[in-house]
Amino acid sequence: QVRGITFGGSGCPQGSNLSIPGLKSTYFDDAFEAKFGGDERVTDQRKNCQMNIAISYPLGWQFNPPSTTTLGYGDLVAGVNGLVRSTYYFSGSSDQTTTDLELTGPVAGYFSKTESSPVDLWSPCGSEGMLNINLQARITGGRTNETSRIRVDT
Predict the structure, then answer these.
(1) Residue 64: which residues within 8 A CB-CB, separation 6 or more?
(2) In the chain, what are the domains?
(3) N or C: which terminus of the chain has fewer CB atoms within 10 Å of its end residue's CB?
(4) 75-93 confidence digits (pLDDT tens)
(5) CB 31 within 8 A of CB 11
(6) pLDDT for 18-73, tens place per residue?
(7) DSSP-based three-state secondary structure for 43
(8) Structure confidence by residue, pLDDT tens digits, 89-104
(9) What's a Pfam family this protein contains (predicted)?
């Protein structure tokens, strides 16, 4: 059972429109878009969202995160690389799992990144836990006058 959710970061600043209907889907607003090149600021090359999900489960049980899918759009010019990274961990545990989707320009189109349930990541044994998900989009490359972008939608 989900008891509460907090979030923050350059991709989902407090006050942004982060919709979590029953936690089956999370929808980000326009803040979650990394940009590179042209007149874009260096600070826009990386966006992230840290989500903290308080969960409770029966005493003596453990929780394993379900599979997740990240959807978005990438528009990268030649010589520019993009990365969409998801990191999952439970508070109080040193275990974590990270998955990456790499995009290499030139590319323009929608992307889908699906992670199956990380079998090596389990909550502490007990009745409550905090699942942490850090999602980031990052763009790197040489100098260009053209703008490249990666937008994370869900």
Answers:
(1) 117, 118, 119, 121, 122, 123
(2) 2-152 (2.60.120)
(3) N
(4) 999 999 999 999 989 888 8
(5) yes
(6) 555 555 556 566 678 999 998 899 999 999 999 888 888 888 887 777 778 888 99
(7) helix
(8) 988 888 888 889 999 9
(9) DUF4360
Look-up of token digits 């990270």: 98
- What are the structure tokens assigned to 39, written together? 């007149």
pLDDT of residue 148: 95
Among 111, 148, 135, CA closest to 12 = 135
What is the residue whose two structure tokens read 């992307």?
A: 111
Residue 56 identity (one-letter amino acid): S
Question: What is the rounded distance in angstroms from the CA atom of residue 73 to the CA atom of residue 81?
Answer: 14
Which of 141, 109, 128 lies closest to 1, judged by CA? 128
State how far Cα 98 lies from the chain centre: 10
pTM of the complete model: 0.86
Residue 138 has which token pair?
A: 């990052």
HSE of 1, CA atoms in CB hemisphere, 13 A: 7
